[in-house]
Design goal:
About 60% of the residues lie in helices and about 5% in strands. Strands 1-2 form a two-stranded antiparallel ribbon. β1 and β2 form a beta hairpin.
């Protein structure tokens, strides 16, 4: 598992850890039932407070990405198809917002945007 902390990003450290682990789970870099580093071990490796790491792990568990076995550690949860679908829907909405913003800056009509989407879909096969 590879976590990089950017002190200049402005994002809280626990959120950077959360986002990077979540991304590695969704992309398949971290596999289902794979054991994660201990909270204290990761904190030591990153040279941060274990409380920060604990918060990231707790958020990941709350959101269904991890599960904990008392005395054994934290593991990657089985992929929840609905959870992944929801994550992808959020990404699509974000891209759609960007498309609408860019289209407005080019004075494209709704019909122009729809035509572009249809064209892209046809090219996908």
């Amino acid at each position: 598992m590879n976590i990089l902390i950017d002190n200049k990003s402005g994002a809280p450290i626990y959120d950077q850890i959360y986002s990077q682990i979540k991304s590695q789970i969704i992309s398949g870099v971290l596999k289902e039932d794979e054991m994660l580093p201990s909270i204290r071990g990761l904190a030591k490796d990153l040279r941060i407070s274990f409380i920060t790491t604990k918060r990231a792990y707790e958020e990941l568990e709350k959101d269904g990405f991890l599960y904990t076995l008392p005395g054994k550690g934290c593991y990657v949860a089985p992929k929840n198809v609905e959870l992944l679908r929801e994550e992808n829907l959020k990404k699509i909405e974000s891209y759609m917002d960007e498309i609408v913003r860019l289209a407005a800056s080019c004075n494209l009509s709704k019909e122009d945007i729809i035509e572009m989407i249809h064209f892209s879909l046809e090219e996908q096969g």
